[in-house]
Specification:
The protein folds into 2 domains: about 5-185, CheA-289, Domain 4 (OB fold (Dihydrolipoamide Acetyltransferase, E2P)), CATH 2.40.50; about 195-335, CheA-289, Domain 4 (OB fold (Dihydrolipoamide Acetyltransferase, E2P), Beta Barrel). The strands form 4 sheets. The chain has a 6-stranded mixed beta sheet. The protein has about 350 residues and is mainly β. Helix content is about 10%, strand content about 40%. The two termini are about 30 Å apart.
Length: about 350
Amino acid sequence: MNSTSYLLFALGDTRYGLAADAVQEIFLLPALTSLPEVGPAIAGVLNLRGQLLPVLNLRLLLGHPQQPNRLSQVVVLVQCEGQRVGLVVDHIQNVEAIATVNITTTLETHYIDNAQPSLTAGLAQYADSVIVLLNPAALMQGAAGMAPSNVMPLAGAEGAANRFMAQFNPADQQVLRERAAGLAQPLATENDSEQLALAVVSLAGEQFALRLETVHKFTNVSQITPIPCCPSHIVGNMNLRGEILTLVDVRRFLNLPPAAAAPLQKAVVMRLGSLVAGVVVDDVFDVVYVNAAEVAAMPTAVHSNENPYLKGVARYGDTLMSLLDLPTLLIQGELVVDQTG
């Protein structure tokens, strides 16, 4: 069955999706510089590693009521046809592979006038909700006239005329400026091919990062059917929209304590050739982009520097996350469940 991976996010109570291959980066909302003579849908511009990035207030562009921005919001960096734009969204949910048969593309919704492309690329039925799929090309039109060559050089995020920063109290403004200062720094290498797309999950109170290209989807754990005569790391089977999915607990392979007695909540679904398995996790936090040069060797004090399933550590906020090689872990013979006997 043909499917496409989408980054799912929320604005208020509405869920939206963007084709994952159009998403270049995700980061927490930083300080922005407001520009004169632009509508409120233009949140401002950002110095992103030496290049000016227009940032849209997606809530207003899509017709939601205007609300003050918050520190917890994130910016999704979208690239399409050589152009880039940032989108302010409330929070990221997950990355989901949506089957083509579940997407309706016959609706026509335009903004400004019919000469503009539709903001909506389609609607997708996902679980018990409807996802509004957005058109990246139309979002670029929303930033028309905001090309870096047409924008005055940034003089900083301060100033009485900065409408964006005026929403926040002085303490929050300082947090935003610190975020912006970090984003203004050039990467250790300018080779975009070394950017790693990582999904951040938690296990036993620790953060782990998974290469996003190895993840088929994230899912909530529903009713589990135990499998007789299986080792303890095999949690059981669950029905995932008509497909039987075997759930695996990898904690003991990472020298972590076993899962608590509370019901399991989430799983990362991996599809490796003919092997399909769900790895249970405590939570799914984020999707981040990290430069490969920022990944350090696994410290000896963290788990074991000889653990073949851990491929280094990277900074995640104020803590560290360990890069977990789930494909290598899943294809090990001791994890295979033989249900033919």
